[in-house]
Amino acid sequence: MNSLHIGIAGAGLAGRTLAWRLLRAGCRVSLFDSRSRDALDTASMTAAAMLSPLAELAVSDDAVFALGQRSMQLWPRWMDELAEGGGAPVYFRQQGTLVVAHAPDQTSLEHFTRLLHHKLPEACRAQVRTLDAAALGAVEPTLAGRFGGGLLLEGEGQLANDQWMAGLATEIERLGVQWHEGQAVEKVEEGRIVCADQSHAVDVAVDARGVGSKAQWPADNPLRGVRGEVLRVECPGVTLLRPVRLMHPRYQLYVAPRPNHQFVVGATELESEDTGPVTLRSTLELASALHSLHPAFGEARVLRLSAALRPALDDHRPAVALRDGVWHINGLYRHGYLCAPALVDELAHKLLGIERKEET
Ligand SMILES: Cc1cc2nc3c(=O)[nH]c(=O)nc-3n(C[C@H](O)[C@H](O)[C@H](O)COP(=O)(O)OP(=O)(O)OC[C@H]3O[C@@H](n4cnc5c(N)ncnc54)[C@H](O)[C@@H]3O)c2cc1C
């Protein structure tokens, strides 16, 4: 058992997952968040939570790919470990991603395919399967006859982020977290989490406040928010077995299935820290992409339109860093779910002073 008292500012994906790993290792954990545990306006609750190391390689680099690959090993194990606590199972699938394009947009798909082959390590290229129309229909029957072909990115996955976040909340309560809900943190210092009315002494302080810790990032490596918007619908007439990415010359959109015939359609990516409601333009783009995938989505019921800020560094890589005695985990950008297990595992091992044993 480890008797360290660790204070974590921010109970989003990074902070909450880290709290869980540290509690499991026997640490005492105090967790602070300005919002309630089920607030919907954070990146962690807004995300589509696709686990796409291959597809994301087109817009990221080797570092993100390596974190994603390692996380894809950890996710199934962590799902099992969370279930051991007795909570409700979390929707988690690893049936690949389908990438398609309408006939006028075929060049976008061809470019994406070439980019992937260029950037992917040779050992992983077999995970990219080219499908003709018949094979596509066999893999994803709902889309049979709708596209001339596509790509299947094998091994990619997805999870229900709201279930993951709720499951963690229940489990860390069971493991004895001291959760300071609705407590805004003003500053994180060495050995101290500073709130408006009280300063809390801890052995180790971790800042995981996403864009909320912007002021604590240096000018030569600034943190910024990148706005993303998603549409959530329910459509009992349609079943998709895996996320579908729709290539388009202007934007790439995706439809990620969730339990009970729900779908998350996303996402816009705007260089803006505006946290206001989703715009009409974005709503039209998301809704038309969905409808163009299959006309049956015309009957979908709109459940929610959400916007949130992705915390991003200029190099778009996530960072685990120690600065002035404070540990930071941030910059998860558009790869938070993809990279969280590897990053959190790395930080937890650093905090516990345990030598990492490589996965076998
Ligand atoms: C539209 C959209 C789609 C996405 N899709 C995917 C995807 O498909 N796959 C993928 O891997 N990633 C995706 N992401 C990215 C992923 O959601 C983020 O990288 C991840 O959630 C970031 O987690 P975080 O814990 O670092 O930050 P956050 O989720 O922002 O959490 C930070 C927490 O800190 C709290 N906080 C902030 N300020 C303070 C303060 N002063 N005091 C106390 N608490 C504070 C907040 O309330 C919040 O709970 C998507 C993101 C968006 C927005």
Explain this structure.
The protein is α+β, with helices and mostly antiparallel strands. The protein has nine helices and 20 strands. The strands form four sheets. It has an eight-stranded mixed sheet, sandwiched between helices. It has a six-stranded mixed sheet with strand order 9-2-1-13-20-19, covered by helices on one side. Helix 1 runs parallel beside helix 7, helix 1 packs parallel to helix 9 and helix 4 crosses helix 9. The relative contact order is 0.20.
Q: What is the strand content?
A: 25-35%
Question: Ends: how far apart?
Answer: 25 Å
Outline type = globular
State the helical fraction.
25-40%
Global mean pLDDT: 95
CATH superfamily: FAD/NAD(P)-binding domain
Q: What is the count of distinct domains?
A: 1
Q: How much is the radius of gyration in Å?
A: 20 Å
Uncertain ranges: 355-360
Helices and strands: which structural class? Answer: alpha+beta
Strand order across the biggest sheet? 6-7-5-15-16-17-14-18
Number of strands: 20
Q: List the helices and strands in order.
A: EHEHEHHEEHEHEEHEEEEEEEEEHEEEH
Listed once per kind, the bound small molecules are: flavin-adenine dinucleotide
The CATH level-2 architecture is identified as: 3-Layer(bba) Sandwich
**CATH-defined fold name:** FAD/NAD(P)-binding domain
